[in-house]
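tl;dr need the bound structure. longer version: we got a ligand (uracil) that a collaborator sent over and nobodys looked at where it sits. i said id run it. heres the input, straight from their email, havent touched it
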Amino acid sequence: MPWTERQQALLQGMGLRIWSPPPPAALRPAAPQAAPLAAPVPVEMPAEPPAESPTPAVAQRVEPTPAHPVVSARTPPAAPAAAAVPPPSAPSPQATGVAAMDWPALREAVAGCQACALCESRKNTVFGVGHTSAEWMIVGEAPGEQEDQQGEPFVGAAGQLLDAMLQAIGLTRVEADAAHQVFIANTLKCRPPRNRNPLPEELAQCAPFLHRQIALVRPKVLLAMGRFAIQQLLGRDEPIGRLRGQIHDYHGTPVIVTYHPAYLLRQPTEKAKAWEDLCLAVSVYRQRQGR
Ligand code: URA
């Protein structure tokens, strides 16, 4: 099926060149669900992306396949030695109180948090943004300089790419209904100095906030972007290349892992894989919608 003009514009916004299929008579695949391919490398799409929105007219059941196995966070991975990070539910001093908070209490707790040294260098805490009952939740890493200044996640260059990626599958961070407006949160609510990687103790202290956000939002699909989001949600530390293409589990919510937009800006050839991941997430979402 050819891309619509709108989809082409969106994919180009993500930096993906459109691969035009050869003449239909010669090479059009027989399978109706065979999707167009996006350059720079030919990839097999797991599902046809939606024309306008991730909300299909008819729910479509997507069974796990060998290509997209369901993997539980609590199922020991095939190579346990490679996943030596603390479990996602590692206890933290804050955990008990935070787990019972409503949105206003949680916002207040984040705004006043002094559980780690990041509170000394931050300008603003970055709570998260979006629909509080969003069906899609995006988890990133930590605020950068612009996010620290504005108090909103993903407002810099990586954020622009994230917005284009979301738009390509019919989603937005701006006001819309719960099926279309996502909720975006980070593993850390404060900026690490000079954008260094989050430290394990910072991740552990901040984890209850993210876990509570997910519990309050109750998304149908979680998109974990980058290694720290994956660690925080799944307790897995393998390379993303080994974890993507699977349906992971966070306390009953499916998790699709993908590359962080900042990484995609540095490695644009990986954008085609991120597009595959988004298509997988859409398939999983459609399946959940049918329930
Ligand atoms: N990168 C992230 O992971 N989160 C932000 O908010 C900004 C950049």
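gonna send this back to them w/ a short note. The two ends are 28 Å apart (CA to CA).
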